[in-house]
Amino acid sequence: MNRQISHLAIVALLLLAALIVATTYWQSWAAPGLAAKQDNAIQRVAQFRIKRGKILASNGMVLATNRAVKSGGQTLYLRRYPSNGLASQTIGYSTQGRSRAGIEEEENGYLTATDANLGTIWNKLLDTAKGTTITGNNLVLNLKVNAQKIAENDLKGKCGAAVVLNPKTGQVYVMASEPGYNPNDIESNKGYAQILKSPSACPGSSSALYNRAIQGLYPPGSTFKTVTAAAALDDGVYTPNSMFDDKGYCTEYGKEVSNALNPEGSAEAYGEVNMIQAYEHSINAVFCDIGMKLGAKKVIDKAKDFGFYSQPPIELPSSTIAPSGEYLNHKLLNNTGLMDPGRLAFGQDKLITTPLQMALVAAAVANKGTIMVPHLIKKVTSPSGGTIVNIKPKVWKHAMKPSTAAALNTMMQAVVTGGTGTSAQIPGVKVAGKTGTAETGVGRIYDAWFIFFAPADNPVVAGAVVVEHSDNGFGGSVSAPIAKQLMQAILPPASKH
Amino acid sequence: MGARTLTINPRNRELFYLAAVGVLTGLGFASVYIARQSLVSWGSLGYALFFFALYLVAHLVARFTVPESDPYLLPMAGLLTAVGVTEIYRLGPSDAFKQGLWIVIGVALFAVALFGLARDYRVLENYKYLFGIGAIALLFLPQLPGLGESVNGARLWVHVGAFQVQPGEFSKIFLIVFLAGYLREKREVLAQGRLKDMGPLLVIWGGCMLVLVSSNDLGSALLYYGIFLSMLYVATARLSFVVVGIALFIAGGAGAYEKIPHVRERVVIWLHPWTTTKVYCAQTGTMALRQDCDSYQLVKSLYSIANGGFGGAGLGKGTFTTTSGHQLIPEINSDFIYSALAQELGLIGAAALLLVMMLFVARGMKIALQADDGFSKLLAAGLTFGFALQTFIIVGGVLRLIPLTGITFPFVAYGGSSVVANFLLLAGLLLVSNRANVRE
User: Fold this and answer.
1) What is the pTM of this model?
2) What contacts B10, CB < 8 A, 6 or more positions away?
3) Which of A112, A483, B48, B164 could form a disulfide with B25 if both were Cys (CB 3.0 to 4.6 A apart)?
């Protein structure tokens, strides 16, 4: 019988060995796939056993922290937002029921110490070995609390967004989107339902969850003339002193497109003007002519140099960063043959842009044609306080020739000193800007824009402000005063006088 | 004078390994305490000491009754029980106390079996038909109205006063004793392979299928049938019996799949635990994804295993409840104890556990090889193979190698009947081993 017993022993041992193989399969090969499953509650719970890193503003103010909750013998760390909604969409949230958004989503790796950073992994291993709670890394943002508050207060009761950054370093000082929400209310069904409601200030527009600064797509109106002018100057056919004869309208496809479309400029004809004057007074007819001469392709190619048609690389979930450009049926339109070059040139046609993109247009002019990568995060620090990563300035795009940027700098200053943007003037500071009042297709309801930078000879702040569905409000009267306050909040005291 | 090899008395060896297991148990309980309460309590060490004392009693009984038996089986059983109890304690202390009580009963019966049968266990052979009838009677006990109870669609339980007993666990041992006696006697006749001698084979096949049909228990049917075929093969050396037997089982299984909704459901869950569209959920009467309904347990258990990764979460640090404290996997400490262990101990721990099982099987088979009479060989081989197959059926089900059926993980899972039955299994192996070693 011994032969058979040996056979049986082999069968029995093979059966058990198969179990080891199967366990290995589930714990190694299949593990990542299972961890990613929607209904994997363990993964959700495990996330809350990590003491998530804090999110701090540049002045050290705590924007996101934890509250410890004891449940079933384990300590869970649920998120708490002490400011109750400062920069709500930008910070985002981390919840049990509704997952994550904003920086909380994009930088989950650092915040939970799972990012593939050697020091982080080492610390986490030590924590695991010691059996202590894993503590995530802290994020210190470039966000300036006072300026952020001003932006949110000024936009309160309206729908709109503001982005302010340092054109030389890309540090983002302000990213505001109104209406905002209180992230502490996200978890509750009642609170969430309230947040999801369409804002009363602009019926039909997106809810408060929406980060208008990066997701909101608005016709840029005349602010886009900055890009058209850059295309024209870079092309070499035009100079700032090129002369135009403004008849009050331009003729496109045999039809007259009149200046009256531009509510800031008067409908009357300016006559003989150079490019500086046309920009200063935002004369549509002149830019319409320039657009038709250049053709849509040259304008769009220049826009791409500014970052249009791509997602600006900022530390937010890429699914929430909209590329700017011409859209047809909710898709980016690449076929320049389907574009209207005249209307495109003054920022209408099918062109829509995000406030972040327009802030980067202003920053490009301010920084001699170079666009820096926008950074919300200043540095990542370990739980013990040491710096893990210091975010360094990085070039994103070369938008135009330095000479072109210099010419546009002059033109944008003229807008503030004597053109459509005089309400952005700050005593003692050379401010540069451009207004935009985009048609929304509804009567005298406009999207009011202002893009800006200051001080013009050595810019340390640049940005964009948009106010949605402004009733009879223009960029110069609605958005420029907000921009002025933002610049004043950020400029060092010495340059204010 | 030949060279004298240093020999350590097998019982001293056993005591040494038991001491090592005792230390491991203490460490295990201490880690659960630290992880759960952030403190080491004397209570945890008390528990380990109590546990060690129980096994010390078993050791002393063995020292007295079966002094020459294999010294590794008892410490390995002790280790498996300790791992089980530690995890059961971690999942819910009250169940661990009950399990501790069952271990006391198990050790008592272990002692009774050893004292009663140490002189010559082969007297059991004389009562083989009694065991055979007993096996069938126990198997059908849960079917009796008023006595039996249905859990998760399978009728496997009997209420005796406050206790819940699973007679199938004992039926398995009885069946092995019966088969060892019966096959020893009839092996020559059966080996000739005449159709008229196949009667018992067909009777047992029919019996197993009957159990399958009446109790809805695919796992037990597979276990009994596997034990029967393996012992038949050892006795007759006819591989063709095994082939025919497997073919008959497949035919029966296919029939059950066609006729019995419960069996079909198990197979569907096994093949397609995840659906992307909603399917009818009989439990709630609504449409739901299968992973939220029928295969909820299996899927959650797989998540638990996967979450263990290579090194595991650590004893006491696994995730078995939601943030609001709800249990994620029902039956976690019995049917799904393996997925709890795999999460907390990781691949290293789970593989080590299975390697201990393999060592146990290897020692058991060695005993079968060493035994010098047919009854002893068949008994040891049957008990050992039953142990291996039972482990394969439950853990293989949890790991989705085969359809999941609720039978217990020997020594490890929560369940009184199982613990007691496994102590009897252990006693049987020690008895055979002792006799073989004494006669050598």
Assistant:
1) 0.67
2) B67, B68, B69, B70, B71, B437
3) B48
